[in-house]
Amino acid sequence: MISGAGAVPAPTDVFIAQHLINGAWVSSASGQTFDRFSPANGQLVTQAALGGEAEVEAAIAAARTAFDDRRWSDTSGKERATFLLKVADLIDANRSRIALYETMESGKPIAQAEAEIEGAADIWRFAASLARTIHGDSHNTLGPDMLGVVLKEPIGVVSMITPWNFPFLIVSQKLPFALAAGCTAVIKPSELTSATTVILGQLLIEAGLPAGVVNIVLGYGDPVGTNLTNHPDVDMVSFTGSTAVGKAIVAATSKTLKKVSLELGGKNPQVIFPDADLDEAADAIVFGIYFNAGQCCNSGSRIIVHHDIAAVLIQKIVELSRKVPFGDPLNPSTKVGAIISSQHQAKIDGYVKDAVKAGATVAIGGAPLTIDGMSGEFYQPTVVANVTKNMAIASEEVFGPVLSVLTFTTFDEALEIANGGDYGLSAGVWSQDISTCLKFARRVQAGTVWTNTWMDGFAELPFGGAKESGLGRELGHHGMDEYLETKTVQMRIGKTRSRWV
Ligand code: NAD
Fold first, then answer.
1. What residues does 413 pair with on adjacent strands?
2. Ligand 1 pocket, residue 165 CB under 6 Å
3. Tens digit of pLDDT for each residue in 353-372?
4. pLDDT tens across 89-105, in order?
5. Looking at the domain that runs over 15-264+469-487, which CATH code has it been given?
6. Keyword Oxidoreductase: yes or no (predicted)?
7. I need a surface site. Which of 33, 80, 244, 296 has the fewest CB within 10 A?
8. Ligand 1 pocket test, candidate residues 196, 234, 242, most atoms within 8 A of CB
9. CB distance 465 to ligand 1 below 6 Å
10. CA 78 / ligand 1 centre spacing (Å)
11. How much distance in Å is there from the Cα of 243 to the middle of ligand 1?
12. Statement: residue 85 has pLDDT above 70
């Protein structure tokens, strides 16, 4: 366990967060604000303007005007790329400050936050490379007097709604691609993590973004999120968050039939075959479940291990679990920090207690964790064995440092368990036989499959969910395609059209 000794100093001032509307930083018309306290030590971190209908209306109007007068969409790919690269450089230059607020608001370890901000800058650079490659098709085989041209155009005004678990990284999986495509945006960060999206807004202005192209409204899902999804002047909603809210957004957007892109929850399986390298697998499993304290859509939260090797593998996982440095998020040695809120802590604990009542056994952990000098919420590294597929902990998103262990005897049984349930975000397979890995990769229902690894990510590769884990993709060129509309232009060449009447 890691205490406060050697920690990075916490900010001494409260971060004052305002809305960014039409290029200006503004308070709410109501004058109301809301506070965010550190989940690790209770310090007041951020006081944010509390957005309501007036702020959403003004932000959407600004984004609509900025799109319709073409102040951004008429810029060349070269100009957009230059701007995105400038933002990437500013993110790098401000990495420590962004990481500090990310850690203070979310409870994640400072070293991890620094790595995420570095990764976010890389995504902005990748999107810059795409900005200069947008192109459609031409069809020159439609007959001698016709030419078909397929244009790619920006979809318009995009509402972006983001969660608290990777605030800066997730907005960076959306915004640079939308800007590369020529769209304008209104962003609503989670009410728990407003600060770093506001810092991003400051950097966008510093980099010279025209007023109204990106707007930020702070506040709660209702009314800010709801108004951003049902407003007729919004063309698309890009949402990352829970499947329950994702479904509410699909219902809300159906009234105006907007395009929707959804990155939702997961209950991601890793199947371990007897010929796997168990030491490699155990290390990746421990990383997969404790990274971000398990509060990760991609958490490898259930392992499905061959019956013959289950005891050995569990033993290795338990031994590694004891060594993971849990503790003060501001200490650079910490690998696992705080749980986002006390309500969430209680939810995690409830899943473990219910599983035990249903017959599962706790191999390690299973209770809140006390860290010296920290008043906030922490949860012990927890491995729950003897889980069966009918238990809630086997199919629902616990979103904490809690691993469920199920067993199998045949390939088909493993696949059936892996494909059980409503989610389909990611999946993994461990075997030294490439055919076993490939057979599993082809049959598992998931947006991403990792073979003999877990949770690697690249700006080049698309990410998203199957089944109830989402709609659409982020990252890669697929990520930018989401923000483009296709327009067909059919051109007659010469006066060759035969008259209808
Ligand atoms: P959440 O769904 O509670 O909230 C996400 C965002 O939606 C917040 O900004 C919230 O204020 C807003 N919101 C809430 N109700 C709304 C409504 N009715 N209309 C519009 N907006 C509304 O999710 P969370 O607790 O912030 O994040 C955790 C969830 O996010 C987990 O389920 C996790 O798996 C998922 N997630 C998915 C990915 C992915 O890429 N697939 C990545 C990170 C997190």
1. none
2. yes
3. 999 999 999 999 999 999 88
4. 999 999 999 999 999 99
5. 3.40.605.10
6. yes
7. 244
8. 242
9. yes
10. 34
11. 8
12. yes
